[in-house]
Amino acid sequence: MKVLVTGATGYVGGRLVPRLLDAGHEVRTTTTDLSRPAPWWSDRVETVQMDITDAHEVDAAVAGVDAVYYLVHGMGGGSDFAEKDRLAARNVADAVVTHGTGRVVYLSGIVPPVERQDLSEHITSRLEVEEILTATPATVLTLRAAVLLGSGSTSFEIIRQVSERMPVQTVPTWMNSDVQPIAVVDAIAALVGALTADVGSRSYDIGGPARIPYAELLDRYAALAGLTRPQVTVPFLPTDVVGTIVGALTDVPTPTVEALVESLHHDMVCAEEDFRRDLLPEGYLLMGLDEAVRRSLTDPRESLQAEPETADPMGPLAHDPSWAAGGDDQPLLARAVDAVQDTVDRVLPG
């Protein structure tokens, strides 16, 4: 099949493309800037310039492909991120209709079983993107994941950097919801399977074998990383304050941190696990939590020196964000000062 992968230079996309190539598919990828350094697999794909908010560029990118992977999300701050997500989804949906594209595979987030008005803004936006894409005649498969485990994953890097930089883990009482993490290699296997699965349009919740409270996930990470991190439960901490503090203590962009923290008011677990039957090869075994964390902790000096085609995708890869693999080594005191200042600015604006 000829496949378009949007977001191919992102964390998941960069690991998905070589799997699609190995499976014999012809791949077209997009970039907003053709002069940017290309991933190691770029000589095996066709790359076109595309801004997903530009309808003409999206139409040109979709022309002639059998399927589209939609791997873009607006995780930035500001009040217009939902409108940008909406515009991007409509552009892809219109192009899919125009060119008769047969399949769209969309990687989204777990949607907890609560009233729509109780969902976070970012989960609501992702659900709206799903609805826009599913309204097309194409077969649209939405894979909803919670925490992706792997070096460079936004969720994993938050867990890693908070655990390594805070001598005591302070956990708000409302953050002890259950999560169901999935190793990125298992998520990619499901994404590859979604391309040819003999099913109609639907969503799949995808998660690993462990369903675990978020506080216990932090504790498990600390133990596997060889850290001693006592936990203190703190009541009445506002969500925006927690997001600001965690954003200041980590190298992950603060708006992204705030969006992910907001989702932890609800259990982020699978309501069903049909993906194991429909999207994964028969007999496929999902990676356990402990193994996923250990493989994600690969020393970057070892992983980045390996040939990229043989490197473990659970570990760091050269195209990962600059804040991945543990981030920089700014002193904790300086980060704490930044966190306090950011919190004061949030509580006492102006």
From TrEMBL:
Gene Ontology molecular-function annotations: aldehyde dehydrogenase (NAD+) activity
Ranges of residues in domain NAD(P)-binding: 7-156
Disordered as annotated region, ranges: 297-330
GO terms under cellular component: cytoplasm
Protein name as annotated: Uncharacterized conserved protein YbjT, contains NAD(P)-binding and DUF2867 domains
Species whose genome carries this gene: Ornithinimicrobium cerasi
Lineage: Bacteria, Bacillati, Actinomycetota, Actinomycetes, Micrococcales
